[in-house]
Specification:
Layout lengths: L16 H6 L5 E2 L2 E2 L7 H10 L5 H13 L1 H27 L5 H15 L2 E6 L2 E6 L8 H14 L7 E3 L8 E3 L12 H17 L1
Helix pairs in contact: 2-3, 3-4, 4-5, 4-6, 5-6
Length: 205
């Protein structure tokens, strides 16, 4: 299923779901978003399908539900944008070595509390696993998964590998898994090449 949306034009380079979610913008200059990719609930579903959170069937079902629950879908979209920016600022505080804003942590914790209400421990042939219950009819299902992803990364040993792209007007976050942690760009073919071109032009001047 292909949903026409700007949200599916975002490269999934974050290395973790929560980082890819923060990157659903065209770029950032300090706290200013250059281009919003999640302009409506359809965009949110399109990105969730693109990121592998939903199957085609699940995406179609959520869009159908959203058509019947327009106000609720709009509320979920607002929550998604607020959660995204809270997660971004929390990771930014980690990068800057500063304390995260209490309001941002509260926002993430509220979404985590909502998510935990839908977690269900089940036993399978391979052992015990967590599953999401009642996810099929939940317009905010993707927020459960994103918030848990953020919490898992923030409490993991990989937290120190979170970097911010050095590209001008980018600001995307990614997990640097290179051996010497020297990755500078979200994508060498995009921001990396642009930086090379700028340096070349500066030398020419």
């Amino acid at each position: 299923m292909k949903i026409e949306s700007e949200a599916v034009k975002v490269n999934l380079i974050g290395g973790r779901l929560c980082l890819d979610f923060t990157n659903t913008v065209g770029g950032r200059i300090e706290s200013i978003i250059i281009k919003e990719r999640l302009e409506n609930y359809t965009d949110l579903v399109a990105w969730s399908r693109y990121a592998g959170l939903l199957t085609d069937k699940e995406a179609r079902h959520l869009l159908s539900l959203a058509g019947k629950r327009a106000a609720q879908a709009e509320a979920v979209l607002r929550r998604a944008a607020t959660l995204r920016e809270a997660i971004y600022r929390i990771f930014e505080s980690v990068l800057n070595g500063s304390q995260p804003d209490r309001k941002d942590l509260d926002r993430l914790n509220r979404e985590l509390a909502e998510a935990k209400e839908h977690e269900w421990l089940v036993h399978t042939r391979d052992g015990f696993i967590w599953e999401w219950k009642e996810s099929g009819n939940a317009l905010d299902y993707m927020l459960w998964v994103v918030s848990r992803s953020a919490a898992e990364l923030l409490t993991s040993e990989d937290l120190g590998r979170v970097h911010r792209c050095g590209g001008e007007s980018c600001g995307w976050l990614f997990l640097d898994i290179s051996r010497n942690r020297s990755r500078q760009w979200c994508d060498m073919k995009v921001c990396g090449n642009l930086a090379k071109v700028r340096r070349f032009r500066q030398r020419e001047r």
